[in-house]
Amino acid sequence: MTIADREIDPTDPDFAVKDVFRCLWQVARATRCLPGVRLTPGERMALSGYTFVHGIDLVWTTAEALSREPEIFPDVSLCPGEVKGRLHRSLALSCLGDLLHRLADHATDLALLDRADAVKACFQVVLHVREDRNAGFPTPNAERRRRAMIAPEKALRDRQEHGEKVARKHDRLARKSAATAAGEPSSPRTRAPKKAPSASFVLDAQRSLQAIFAGTLGAIATRAGLAQGVANLYTRVLS
User: CA distances (Å), 147 to each of 125, 128, 135, 143, 150, in order?
Assistant: First the structure.
């Protein structure tokens, strides 16, 4: 089946925008019963380490061993029925996730067909008006047609400028990667030399730190002169 065979007719009354939003609402309502859990990328990575291929066999055989001879595992508090239930629930959730992924891919394909068809049609209109304007034989309302196409022409220029910007970025990254692979040292960034702090600034900083240390240690000191002694030591270190 070709793309033309799968094109969507925008005027088809059996497939309208309201039908898409009705489907969206039904999916949203169906997922309301799921617990509100949201894992971080790090948590997903850590938990994925336990989802190896033979994990299902591990859970099933362990639960069977515990339930078959519970008297020889008095020190094991794991409930075989509970762990089996979690395993079954995980498989059911995997089926749900697979279904939603398939639904997402289906909706994305439909959206791609619709958007591409709409953009292609409007792109052809802009090209048609542009070619008609450059033909040398102005048609009636040529100036009005030109003004009407100012915004669409700007959208095409923005698209071209964005593509050129992305291409330049990729070219810089490619040249940098090639230079790194060849062992060429990267040019260091030139930075303005740091301005040395003035003598008054250093003195004010020393006095502020001395006051902070003296006040803090003075509140907790148990011997007289401890705070001042530490503050004096800190002053000598700074100098």
Answer: 14, 15, 17, 6, 5
- pTM score of the predicted model: 0.59
Q: Where are the alpha helices (DSSP H) in the chain?
A: 17-30, 41-48, 55-68, 80-133, 142-148, 150-181, 199-220, 226-238
Name, in order, each residue with C-beta under 8 angstroms of 231's C-beta and a sequence gap of 6 or more. 210, 211, 213, 214, 217
Q: Which two tokens stand for residue 48?
A: 């994925």
In contact, 6 and 106? CB cutoff 8 Å = no
Lowest mean pLDDT among 22-36, 74-88, 100-114, 128-142: 128-142
Please return the burial class of 152, using the count of CB atoms within 10 Å of its CB with bins 0-12, 13-18 and 19+.
middle
